[in-house]
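Following the same procedure, sequence and fold were stored together, as reproduced here.

>
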Amino acid sequence: MKKQIYLMLMFTMMLIKAFAQPTTAPTTPPTRNSSDVLSLFSGAYSDYPGTDWFPDWGQSTVVADTTIAGNDLKRYTNLNYQGVDIFGAVNVANMQNLHLDIWTSNCTAFEVVLINEGVVGGEQGFTVNPTSSGWNSFDIALSNYTNVNLTNVGQIKLVGTPFGSSVVFLDNIYFWKASNTPNLSNFTIPAKVLGDAPFTITAPTSNSSGSFSYTSSNTSVATVSGNTITLVGLGTTNITATQAAAGAYGSGTISASLVVTSPPPATAAPTPPTRSAGNVISLFSNAYTNVTVDTWSTSWDNTVDPVDVSIAGNTTKLYKDMSFAGVEFTSSMINATNMEKFHIDIWTPNANVFKIKLVDFGPNGFYGGGDDVEHEIGYTPAQSTWVSYDINFSD
C-alpha cells in the first residue's frame, strides 16, 4: 500500500511538470493601422480567417487552445514540429517583420519556417532562442527569408528543440510593418540676434507620441543640447527635429531655419559736414540732396536686396548675406570730374574685407563696346563700429 501511494505521488508530480505554464499574459501589442498588420493569431487585431493550426503532418505535437489571465493562447506539448496551414496563402511582401510571443519551460531553440506551398525549395527557416524566464517577444525581419516568395506564403512550420519534448505557449503571431511617417507640422524657430540667451525649442505638432531629439546643421551658428539652443555665431543653420517611432508610427523628421544676425549699430553713422551743393554729389545721405539711383541691388549681384532701416533716427541701408552688390544709376550717369574723393560709411559685424569698385562706361556712355574702365580698392574694416572711408579719386 505504501508503494502504491509513492507511485501515485510521483505520477502526479510528473504531470505537473509536463504542463508547466505561464501565469501572466504577454504584453499587449501596440495599436496599428489595419493596413500595417496581417494577424494570424492575436486578440489585439482582426485575424486572417481560415487558418488551420493543426494540419495532420504526422507530427507528435499536441496542440490545444488555452486561456491564461483572460488571454487566449496556443499550447504545444511534445513539440517536434508543427504545421500551420494558411487558407489561400497571404501576400506579406509589403510587411517588414513577423512577430510572435513565446513562453516555454524547456525549449531552447524555436525555428519558424515560412513555406511557399507546392514550390520546390520554397521554404526557409529562422531560429530564435527563447529563455524560460518569462514571455519572450521576437520580431523576425522578413528580409531573413530570401528563398521565400513573400507574395505567396501558404504555410508555416514550427520546430522545437529539444525535438519531440518541447513545451511552448504562443500568442500574437502576426506580420507587420512600421506605419507611414508621422504627420509633423508647425515647427518654426524664431530669428535671433547674437548675444540672445539660450532658448527652448517648441516641439512640432505630431499625431505620434514619439519623443523628439534635435540637431543643428551648422554648429558654428548654434548648438543644441536636449531641447535648448545656444547661439554661437552669425549665419543660418537648419534645426532638425527627429521623432522616434512609437506605437503605429515610424520615425519622422522636420526642419526649420534659424537665422542669427548681429545686433544693429547702437549709434548712427557720423554726420557729414555741411557742404555747398556744388561740392558734393550724394547717392544716399540724410545730410544732402540725393541724385537718382536706379537700383541698390542689380539683377547680376549676389546679395539679399537691401532694406532701409533707422539707426538712432538715421536712415541706413542694410545688406544681408552679401557677396557683392551692384548699384546702378545708368539712367542719369554721374560726371565726377570735378570731385576729389569718394566717401562711404560702413558698419559690419563680420566682414573681413570690403571692396569698392567704380565703373566708367567710356565715351559712348554704354556698357561694353571696349571703352569701359573699372577699378577696385579693398580694405580690412574694423568690426562692430562705424568706419568712414574718404577715397581719393587719384587712387
